[in-house]
Amino acid sequence: METTRFRAxxxxxxxxxxxxxxxxxxxxxxxxxxxxxxxxxxxxxLSNTEEFWLYVFSGYAGxxxxxxxxxxxxxxxxxWPDHPLHFKVVNIALHLVNGVLVFAVLHRVIAAVTTIDKxxxxxxxxxxxxxxxxxxxxxxxxxxxxxxxxxxxxxxxxLGLIAxxxxxxxxxxxxxxxxxxxxxxxxxxxALFALxxxxxxxxxxxxxxxxxxxxxxxxHDTLWRWWRRLYVVVPLVVAVAVIALFWNSLTSGYELKPxxxxxxxxxxxxxxxxxxxxxxxxxxxxxGLLHDDFVISTGITSPLTTLLSLSGLALLxxxxxxxxxxxxxxxxxxxxxxxxxxxxxxxxxxxxxxxHRNYLPSVGFALAFVVVTAKLLAHVRDPRLKKLAWLxxxxxxxxxxxxxxxxxxxxxxxxxxxxxxxxxxxxxxRAQVLKGSMLRVLGxxxxxxxxxxxxxxxxxxxxxxxxxxxxxxxxxPSVRLPPRGKLIASLDKETSSIGPTNVVELIxxxxxxxxxxxxxxEVLRDILFHLSQTPTYQNQLELIRAQQGRLAxxxxxxxxxxxxxxxxxxxxxxxxxxxxxxxxxxxxxxCKVADEYLQISRRRVDSIPxxxxxxxxxxxxxxxxxxxxxxxxxxxxxxxx
Length: 641
Hints:
This protein is an all-alpha fold and 641 residues long.
């Protein structure tokens, strides 16, 4: 037994070192895609403690705000934006720590749901962990800086699973203190930290419920039964109730997506089998970050693989239920995979396909794969065939390691990465945009323009291409503007209303900071006017009116700016809008409006919980504007009159 433990320790240690070596080339790449949008606020944190905590607690990436993840980014603010390597080092360290936790979870769960000997349990847990650590499917989730959110969420979910399994072990041994410490205290703490890292932490509840009700032997301990009711059954009922009560709100995002709820539900089984294919045979364009060109299922037979995938998923679930006692570890691994994908693969209006969503679900795949492989090897009796079988297994493992290394070589060269991604996924909008941006960085502006023109002419929805071109003009005024007529006309072909308004928001922000000289205000004026008149964008009308107001203020027309922002505020009241109206009104000596909206702002600020950093910040602004208004001589004169 001690020999087995020592060998497992040696193998795991060697695997951790190997994994670090495999990920080393990826350290030298830059920030890509969503990194900039999520991390640009770090530039304001270096000399302002209040801004530090405001950044941490005012995240917008999800409904919870992800403060745990943002805190780790904020601590590294001095490394932004010049040292992406520092961020990537932390991500790799988190992946290695997660590898140790995966072993701890698998070792415990194998011992809990089977009666196999401890030596065998350690061996299976060890090889499953090695497979999970080096698998190339995780490269985009580790080398992509912003996916630290997913790494942290997985870390705390794994800690939560360890707490759950330790608590169950304590219940079997009759240790009430152990149940309380692990299951009643440690598990919910880990779950809260996981939720503060990323919302997919809700999957922890589903995984625990699957293991507890689907694979664990009966438990007669009274305290444990109470824990199961309070910490598993009640949360599941609450989750279902929340989804039912807030269904319209939770699914409202579909109006901003190029697919419907029905289409997403039809497509996801195909996505799941695509994930399984990549986990089994990771190669070519199937592996990588960009899959926004994944074909959407518009009907049960469109494409035909939709029907095949739906049938396959039904058969897989039936097989798991039917054989869960006979093939415990295999069915547990597959159930883990499906359950961990349940949240991001169901009704919520998320993008169809992201490789990093396999990070925690692939633990289940690794377990099932290793158990199946071990069973197959055990059935080979001929010594020569057994050697060949072991050789094949070794070659497969080395191939995974090599593919991991190759992917990291690509992540370490951001320029080459952009061109390879485009060559592999020419229909991916992100790949098209990334190649164009990289051409500008390389000083090949004319080639960039030809690239955007060619893509826009071929595309059924060219607005994203023209608006990306507009962003590039912002970053480099020497790049000529896209044809205004084609830019405006492209808006009529867009199926999603969110893209153009996002770009306008970005450019307006740059204009307000005195940047983006290459894009005239008239271009933004024409875009916003057309958006306000086009049916596709009516669900964004409150934002469009707010943007028109900000644009009017840039023109120097405070009265029009105030009127437009008032209209936006009536459509969707917001404390930022009332404060902005107050600010403009005070500075333009519009005393009546200033006084009215300062009162409105104060009421809205008072509705923010005391102690919230936004409360203190907004209250200070209200008081400052009130003081300035009272000191304004013209307002005082009007009041006297």
